[in-house]
Amino acid sequence: MPPLLTLENVRAGYGPIEVLHGVSLEVEEKEIVTVIGANGAGKTTMLLAISRLVRAREGTIRFAGRDVSALPPHELVRAGICHAPEGRKVFPRLTVRENLDMGAFTRADKAGVAADLERVFALFPILKERQKQPGGTLSGGEQQMLAVGRALMGRPRLLLLDEPSLGLAPMVVATIFGVIRRLNESGIAVLLVEQNARMALRMAHRGYVIETGSIVMSDAAERLLADPRVRAAYLGE
Q1: Do 48 and 54 touch, CB atoms closer than 8 A?
Q2: Helix (H), strand (E) at residue 193
Q3: Which residue range is the domain that position 9 belongs to?
Q4: In-domain check, residue 52
Q5: I want to staple 104 with a disulfide (CB 3.0 to 4.6 A). Which of 62, 144, 153, 158 is the partner?
Q6: In this predicted model, what pLDDT tens digit does every residue of 2-61 receive, in sequence order?
Q7: Which residues are within 8 A (CB) of 108 and not within 5 positions of it... i.e. 6 or more apart?
Q8: How far is the C-alpha of 214 from the C-alpha of 185, rounded, in Å?
Q9: What is the domain-level CATH number for residue 19?
Q10: Is 63 contained in some domain?
């Protein structure tokens, strides 16, 4: 079986500036893969290129063996790739429930959508309590829960998570990462970009290190966690 997600020599950027310089990586079914690197290394651009919110200039993106390099973003959601972006990007004037409904905008299976809504509420009970509240009035942690919940409403096979712990209190971070682990155990593959490299590598099966738009290391997460170069550059040791 081919990997669930494959990037081959992907180049992408903004205007005349190229950010990704031939990135290649793989995510297998039911796997957590993390990408670590310094700010500005290209991690967010990589996820945006996978979601087609930034167009790849060169290279190929395959999902479940299918070339999806030219698919529009909503077709990628239908295919099973859902993205919780950096900064949450909730719809501030829509209610929590309406934000979650937006995550299911490509779906017509009402019973399945209703079941997934209850699943999100079970994962994040605070969202059920606040489902009539505007998204913009939630705390940062609650907005992150809403962003993940909205992505889950697309019923992903692959969940793209961009900096889910950014700016959150340790207790909230523990909640979010606990949910990520539970989602993976349920069969969802995860491609995780995360500033907390130690926490990300402890959770992941494999990892990649990106520097100035290029992958410079890849290995099992536990080996990267023990690598002196990674420890010195990203773990503060």
Answers
A1: yes
A2: strand 189-193
A3: 1-80+158-169+190-237
A4: yes
A5: 153
A6: 999 999 999 999 999 999 999 999 999 999 999 999 999 999 999 999 999 999 999 999
A7: none
A8: 30
A9: 3.40.50.300
A10: yes
